[in-house]
Structure formats: C-alpha cells, structure tokens
C-alpha cells in the first residue's frame, strides 16, 4: 500500500504514514512470515518464476485461505491473484446478507 501511495499516487511521506497508521487500526498489525510460508514462497517463486517478494504474498494468502488481490500481471497470469475489478464484480453478484 505504501508503495502505491508513494510511487503511483505521489503522496508525501507524512500522509503515507498517517494512512498506514489508519490501516493498522482497521486491519490489525502486519503479519510476520512463518517459516512454512517462506518455504512455500520459495517454491512458488521457482515454479512461477516470480520474485520472492511476489511469491511471499501468494504464499501468505494461500496459508491464510484468503484471496490475493493484485494488479501484478505475473501473479494474475499465474492464477495466484485476482484483479480488483474481478473481485468487485464477484462481490456485486453475491447475494446480500
């Protein structure tokens, strides 16, 4: 998130820090990678020729049983992530509570 705010949207450091603080309040503290996740990330990276960084996101999402939402074409092409548009479309089609 910080990278998107900094590099894509051009936010200043203070505003980025405030936004990241808000995310911690909403989502909870960042996750630490468990040893098993690191091993799985290495395997995913090798299999799909991804950076370890990208593979680590895929491994964490897999371990947590959640969807990885990304705009990264390599993660999307490997079937390891869903695009934001795809998730939004799926949520619109879901029956309400």
Description:
The chain has helices at 2-8, 13-27, 35-48, 52-64, 73-77, 84-93. It folds into 2 domains: 1-30, no CATH class; 32-97, Rossmann fold (3-Layer(aba) Sandwich), CATH 3.40.50.1010. By secondary structure, the chain is mostly helical. It has 6 helices and no strands. Helix 3 crosses helix 4 (52-64). 66% of the residues lie in helices and 0% in strands.
Identify the notable features of this structure and list them briefly.
mainly alpha, globular, 66% helix, Rossmann fold, 2 domains, 97 residues
Instruction: Give the strand tally.
Output: 0
Cα gyration radius (Å) = 15 Å
The CATH topology of the largest domain corresponds to Rossmann fold
CATH class of the largest domain: Alpha Beta
Report on the biggest sheet: none
Number of domains: 2
User: How much strand?
Assistant: under 5%
Q: What would a concise description of this structure say?
A:
The chain is built from six helices and no strands. It is mainly α. 12% of the residues are buried.
List the helices and strands and how they pair.
Blueprint: H1 2-8, H2 13-27, H3 35-48, H4 52-64, H5 73-77, H6 84-93
């Amino acid at each position: 998130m910080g990278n998107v705010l900094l590099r894509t949207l051009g936010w200043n450091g203070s505003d980025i820090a405030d936004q990241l603080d808000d995310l911690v309040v909403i989502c909870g503290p960042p996750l630490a990678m468990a040893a098993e996740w690191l091993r799985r990330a290495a395997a995913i990276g090798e299999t799909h020729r991804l950076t370890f960084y990208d593979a680590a996101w895929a491994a964490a999402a897999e371990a947590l049983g959640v969807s990885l939402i990304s705009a990264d074409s390599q993660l999307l092409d490997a079937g390891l992530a869903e695009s934001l548009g795809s998730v939004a479309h799926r949520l619109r089609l879901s029956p309400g509570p």
